[in-house]
Amino acid sequence: xxxxxxxxxxxxxxxxxxxxxxxxxxxxxxxxxxxxxxxxxxxxxxxxxxxxxxxxxxxxx
Length: 61
What we know:
Layout: H1 2-12, H2 22-38, H3 43-60
Helix pairs in contact: 1-2, 1-3
InterPro entries: CB (IPR044068), DNA_brk_join_enz (IPR011010)
GO molecular function: DNA binding
Domain Core-binding (CB): 1-61
């Protein structure tokens, strides 16, 4: 879960949770898409980050 948050901050920047937008999430998903194309990663890596981040956001909102 910590890795997912670190990755998100790397892509979007460190912003308050209340300011995270749908576009931020789409940018994060796009970042993962690009990584999957250029690095030897499995979709499972991206899915884990997206699931963990979604859980965090649902819990705190």
